[in-house]
Amino acid sequence: MMTYFFELYDALPRGGPGDNASTRKAFKLVKGLSKKPRILDLGCGPGMQTLELARLSKGKIIAIDNHQPFLDKLNHNAQRRGLSSYIETINQDMNQLLFPPESFDLIWSEGALYFMGFENGLKKCRERLRKNGHLAVTELVWLRPDPPKEIKEAHQSEYPALTDIENNLTMIKKAGYRLIGHFTLPDSSWTKHYYDPMEEKIRDLEKKYPTGHDARTVFSACQREIDLFRKYSKYFGYEFFVMQAAP
Questions:
Q1: pTM of this prediction?
Q2: N or C: which end of the chain has fewer CB within 10 A?
Q3: 100 alpha-carbon distance from chain centroid
Q4: Cβ contacts of 88 within 8 Å, gap of 6 or more
Q5: Buried/exposed code over 93-114 (b: 16+ C-beta within 10 A; e: otherwise)
Q6: CATH, range 17-189+234-245
Q7: How does pLDDT run across 75-123, given as a tens digit for each residue?
Q8: Is residue 213 over pLDDT 90?
């Protein structure tokens, strides 16, 4: 079934919700970076935000993901845009980071830190930040305290640790950070480069695999995710948190 999953996801511009405008907005909150900062992009996926970070920072970006086709796409796009000198890709499980303490000025993770668990990810990133280093992450959150049963149960089965913004802010402080700022990604961050092209690709793949049970199961689950977002997007979303390692 993962074959069908990756056939779908390998065709998408992004591995999750986000957009370059939000990446730029978050980056502007990061102050005091050196002229050539050392940056870690955790769970970079196909790397749309990695390319934007390279343009913005002119630093050295280590982009890690454990799916090589994503890294291949990132390397190809970096070369096309003349950004290869800023980006190094590494095939590595983000749950087994091999970097020593205090390795980075900035750690970035759009839609991927939940693979480590938000609280655990904050801790692991804190250990690898240099003095006064920054962390910028997007995390799925409840935007309202009264989600309907259908969407609440769907998220509890997929991400039981899902909580609201205030609880995430508490975890950020507890992990040794000073909050710089946070904002909610707009609905367009979910649709333009993620759900819209996903839905189009699902239609193509359903024609390619008209009778395959495993394929249809994967595509139906992805379509249901899209449908639930359209129905309940005011109740949940991605929050962009930007923080600095506290002394």
A1: 0.96
A2: C
A3: 23
A4: 60, 61, 62, 63
A5: ebeebebeeebbbbbbbbbbbb
A6: 3.40.50.150
A7: 999 999 999 999 999 999 999 998 999 999 999 999 999 999 999 999 9
A8: no
